[in-house]
Amino acid sequence: MRLSVIISTYNRPHYLERTIEGYLHQTRLPDEIVVADDGSTMDTAKRVGEMAAMSSISIRHVWHEDKGFRAASIRNKAVAASAGEYLIFCDDDSIPACSLVADHLQYAERGYFIQGHRVLLAERISQHFRQKDGTYTAFLLFALQGKAGNVANAFRLPLPLIRRSSSMRGIRSCNLSIFRKDFLAVNGFNEDFVGWGKEDSELVARLYKHGLYRKDLKFRACCFHLYHKHYSRENLEKNIQLLQASVNAPAFCANGVDKYLNARSV
User: Fold this and answer.
1) Which residues lie across from 159 on neighbouring strands?
2) Phi, psi of 31, rounded to the nearest 5 degrees
3) Nearest alpha carbon to residue 204 among 195, 196, 213, 217
4) What's the pLDDT tens digit per position in 190-202?
5) More confident call, 148 vs 32
């Protein structure tokens, strides 16, 4: 099954490089990487181009003008530019463990999307951390030193812990996978969401309406979250209201990915 990784980014080429590097050193490589660039300067485009030139798999750069935080819009554009039957969404601050792609594919199942989990890295470690640093011994040390949180997620038990539900708790598009067909069936992310927060939760609320369930995957499909300052929360209250309004809205949102798909077919 062809798989696309969608990495959202904004002016953090020093983080993005290490995240892409992580996807280029997987036990099962993705078939393509699409960088969803929410208006970064040319530094990001240059670095993506350099990595694409050296990569054995396709790395594409999808960009739009910087008009504030528009993650929903740029992710939709990146999906429209992708070719995968299965999609993994992540962010530039989330370095994948070496088996993340294989894990998502192994547990992919019709009727479900997968929510993976993360280890939270402290500020100092985040400046130099790379995928190869994600060993169990290192994380025990990081935990004892107070330099990492949620460290249990880094461990691979003989069997994963899988929970199927329709819970809204802990929804994060920094480690989420879904069949392309299901993403398009609800028209992707709702682009009415501008500014940080809740666009991923609203997508999931509509996926539930569409009939999907969540497959929560622990002790597999881990990523390592690099520290950064919080985004502005100035639009959060508005986005929360949009999320609440989705309770009475259809699963298929009006302002979604279809306009980019239609543009490609013209």
Assistant:
1) none
2) -80, -25
3) 213
4) 999 998 889 999 9
5) 32
Residues 96, 98, 104: CA angle, nearest 5 degrees: 70
The DSSP H or E segment spanning 113 is: strand 112-115
Counting DSSP H helices and E strands in the chain, the numbers are: 10, 12
Question: Cα(120)–Cα(142) distance, rounded to whole angstroms?
Answer: 11
Measure Cα distances from 220 to 55, 155, 214 in Å: 26, 8, 15
CB 193 within 8 A of CB 199: yes
3-state class (DSSP) for residue 44: helix
User: Cα dist. 185→41, 108, 212, 253 in Å?
Assistant: 33, 17, 11, 10
For 144, counting Cβ atoms within 10 Å of its Cβ (0-12 exposed, 13-18 middle, 19+ buried), the class is exposed
Buried residues in 84-96 as b, exposed as e (16+ CB within 10 A): bebbbbbbbbbbb
Residues 20 and 33 sit within 8 Å (Cβ to Cβ): yes
Of 156, 198, 202, 186, nearest to 252 by C-alpha is 186
Angle between helices 236-245 and 199-210 (to 10 degrees): 10
pLDDT at 102: 98
d(CA 199, CA 245): 12
**246-258 pLDDT per residue, tens:** 878 899 999 999 9
Distance CA 186, CA 152 (A): 34
| 8 A C-beta contact, residue 112 and residue 207 | no
C-alpha distances in angstroms, 79 versus 4, 19, 84?
A: 8, 18, 9
